[in-house]
């Protein structure tokens, strides 16, 4: 059964975190764009964490949406990292070379601790 993509935005350790759930596909465009807007207007530091721990599925259109978020963030001089990707989707990030532009961490705690630096 298809689970519509939802996003929860909050700040952790100075990073803006977008926790995604469900399926990241063409139907997720509005959700992802609204979450990005909320994250960057929330006053968080320059790093955006995309947390995929509760994502069931990402298709090629979903990958394109992630690329568009990355492009938008880069144009605004924001770093983007990912957390919680399954082994399968880590491999997809490697194959598509997304991992050349988005550092991938095993989980949200690790991502936040790495992007926040020693002062966190």
Layout of helices and strands:
Layout: E1 6-12, E2 15-24, H1 29-41, E3 47-58, H2 60-75, E4 79-83, H3 87-95, E5 103-105, H4 108-116
Parallel strand pairs: 2-3, 3-4, 4-5
Antiparallel strand pairs: 1-2
Helix pairs in contact: 1-2
Structure, described:
It is a single chain. With 120 residues, the chain is an alpha/beta fold. It has one domain (12-113): Transcription Regulator spoIIAA (2-Layer Sandwich). The protein contains four helices and five strands; from the N terminus they run ββαβαβαβα. A five-stranded mixed β-sheet has the order 1-2-3-4-5, sandwiched between helices. Helix 1 (29-41) runs parallel beside helix 2 (60-75).
Q: What is the ordering of alpha helices and beta strands?
A: EEHEHEHEH
Helix content: 25-40%
- Number of H- or I-type helical stretches: 4
**Poorly predicted tracts of residues:** none
CATH structural fold name: Transcription Regulator spoIIAA
The tally of domains stands at 1
For the secondary structure, the number of strands is 5
The whole-angstrom Rg is: 13 Å
Shape: globular
Share of residues in strands: 25-35%
* Largest sheet report: 5 strands, mixed
CATH class: Alpha Beta
- The span between the termini is 40 Å
Instruction: Look at the structure and give the mean pLDDT.
Output: 92
How are the strands of the largest sheet arranged?
1-2-3-4-5
